[in-house]
Amino acid sequence: MITDHFFKALQNYPLDYWQWGLAMLSAVILGISKAGVSSISIMTVSVLAYVFGSRTSTGILLPMLIVADVFAVYWFKRHTQWIYLLRMLPWMIAGVVLGAWLGKDIDEKVFKMIMAGIILASVAVMFWQEYRKLKKIPHHWSFAGVMGLGAGFTTMVGNLAGGFSNVYFLSMRLPKNEFIGTAAWLFFIVNTFKLPFHIFSWKTITGNSLAINAVLLPFLIGGFFIGIRIVRTIAEERYRQLILWLTASSVLLMAFGI
Q1: pTM of the model
Q2: What is the C-alpha to C-alpha distance for residues 67 and 238, in angstroms, rounded to an integer?
Q3: Measured between alpha carbons, how far is residue 105 from residues 55, 92, 157, 175 in Å?
Q4: How far apart are CA 67 and CA 46, in angstroms?
């Protein structure tokens, strides 16, 4: 009986083999990104939007994000830096509420261009700091506020918060494992907070969408452990540079709709 319901739910998404392959690949990429290769998750957002449609894909993606967050929290829990998480969390939650309120009406192209511009400007400043070997850390509450609001709003509207959170944690000069562990807890809390909005307000998470999640789950988990092996091979300084370049690349892809 359960099996019959499961296959009936999948029939609501008449995908061909090519589309299923893309969806499975996107799940692997998401797992890798949650293991610490941050910013490549925008590929998952783009692919799922292509396969399922922009709005529907947000409900399919969110449960996968939460599962991946659970793995990341367990794997990197001893590295979490709570002081940085707590500075950003209230602002990010406020951004989620704002995104839930305005997300139905905002023009997606305009939104992406504005967010991409803000993130690219922030990344440019960080590249300049790296080049000049500047070690100054922005402690003013307004920096956490801007990054938190931006991350919360973008994660609610399109699961695109990585750029803002990367800029914030890199600016705090967090080492590799602390970066991953702190981001893991932050996104686990925020993504769980987003669930009621997607279930009851946007109605993007349903029994049908959860059937898709069940199919993609093994690929997500496999991707996470591939990511763990990748992250172990990256030196601390190289990791920081990698995240900067991936963040810059990801927001360019977002801005030009690739």
Answers
A1: 0.83
A2: 28
A3: 12, 20, 10, 39
A4: 19
104/121 Cα distance (integer angstroms): 27
Residue 155 burial (10 A CB sphere; 0-12, 13-18, 19+): buried
**What is the number of domains present in the chain?**
1
Which one-letter amino acid corresponds to residue 232?
Answer: R
For the chain, counts of helices (H) and of strands (E): 11, 0
With contact defined as beta carbons under 8 Å apart, do 161 and 41 qualify? no
62-120 pLDDT, tens digit per residue, is: 999 999 999 999 999 899 999 999 999 999 999 999 888 876 666 666 656 665 666 66
Q: How confident is the model at residue 11 (pLDDT cuts 50, 70, 90)?
A: confident
Q: Which two structure tokens, joined as six digits, stand for 105? A: 């009406």
Range of the domain at 74: 2-255
Amino acid at 43: M
Alpha carbon separation from 109 to 62, 113, 148, 168, 197 (Å, rounded): 21, 6, 21, 24, 22
44-77: burial string, b at 16+ Cβ within 10 Å, e else: bbbbbbebbeeebbbbbbbbbbbbbbebbbebbe
Spatial separation of the C-alpha atoms in residues 146 and 14, rounded to whole Å: 41
Residues 33, 246, 180: CA angle, nearest 5 degrees: 40
Structure tokens at 208: 């049908």
The pair of three-digit structure tokens given for residue 171, joined into one six-digit string: 């600016």
> How many other CB atoms sit within 10 Å of the CB of residue 119?
27
